[in-house]
Amino acid sequence: MKILLINTGGTIACRATSMGLQPQLTAEELLEFLPKTTSICQIDALNLMSLESSDIAPRHWLNMVLAVESQYEAYDGFILCHGSDTMAYTAAALSYLIADSPKPIVLTGAQRPMEQPGSDGRKNLWDAIAYCTHPKACRVRLVFGGKVIAGTRAKKLYTHSDEAFCSVNFPLIATVHQGDVSIITEEEPPKHRCRFTHEMDPNVALLKLIPNSKEAEQLNGLIKHFHGIVLEGYGLGNLPLGNENAFLQTLNKATAHGVVLVGTSQAMMEGTHMERYAVGNLAKGCGILESYDMTAEAAVTKLMWLLGQSRNIESIIPYFYTTVDHDISLT
């Protein structure tokens, strides 16, 4: 079995400098910490970029897609070393940009640099290799802290702990312990040929609402600059009416300008249900799409992906509510 290790930087590849940690290790140097991999599979190395994940942008996701696509026929699986801070966004984005892959595309990284004694990077990379070589491995997955998570369901919970990520509103795909992979969610293998997409609209904003009576002004400031806006409301996705319904009026203004609005919740678990309260119903009447049990990361990147294909909201709606790799199950 042949695996391609793609290095993008992140903590796993960091070295200490006078300015703090900076990604400097190459993919080849990362593999030197796992000398026994040749007994499991052949691993080749590709150094795509060397960035802190806080600097990762949609254009970098598209570069990752091109890297995988250009080598897709030559390898049985792919592992991307990536910083943990924005890994959930990248995992979700790649789940849409590389759809129905029968080959595994695994993201992993570390909370502590690979060179640091006791780094979790060695275990995470070993676990990624173990899952990548499993016969049931497929699609885009995040492997971290012994967990295998669907790319559309990952969220970073902890800033220091080894088990940094959780799977939101969906079971784990698998666990990995001492190289043994235990499948938890049995899946049908992809029925379609792997589909690569090369367009994404970066003009999507995420607005987290707070109780300040300035929601209308904040949203109004975004309308002229963005094609899509994800609104993080409260509880079941509730949005404020605003003084004299100013926020509702601004929602209508946004949709009239062709801005696609998506409502999600600041509560992480169990999803939205905007129709339960009058404020949610009024907001949905303005044309807001509801994210239900999607993560904010998935809602943002799915909207970027769909807007990259079309700016027509009527054509976007059915695809937004179409499940892609477990991303949405409550509609």
Commentary on this structure:
Helix content is 27%, strand content 24%. With 331 residues, the protein is α/β, with parallel strands linked by helices. An eight-stranded mixed sheet has the order 4-1-5-7-8-9-12-13, with helices on both faces. A four-stranded parallel sheet has the order 15-16-17-18, sandwiched between helices. A two-stranded antiparallel sheet has the order 2-3. It is elongated, with a radius of gyration of 20 Å. The model has no long low-confidence stretch (mean pLDDT 92).
How many whole angstroms does the radius of gyration measure? 20 Å
Instruction: Report the count of strand segments.
Output: 18
Number of alpha- plus pi-helical segments: 9
Mass-distribution shape: elongated
Task: Give the N-to-C terminal Cα separation.
Answer: 40 Å
DSSP strand content: 15-25%
- Uncertain residue ranges: none
User: Sheet with the most strands?
Assistant: 8 strands, mixed
Chain-averaged pLDDT: 92
- SSE series: EEEHEHEHEEHEEEEEEEEHEHEHEHH
Overall helicity: 25-40%
Q: Please give the order of strands in the largest beta sheet.
A: 4-1-5-7-8-9-12-13
- The structure class reads alpha/beta
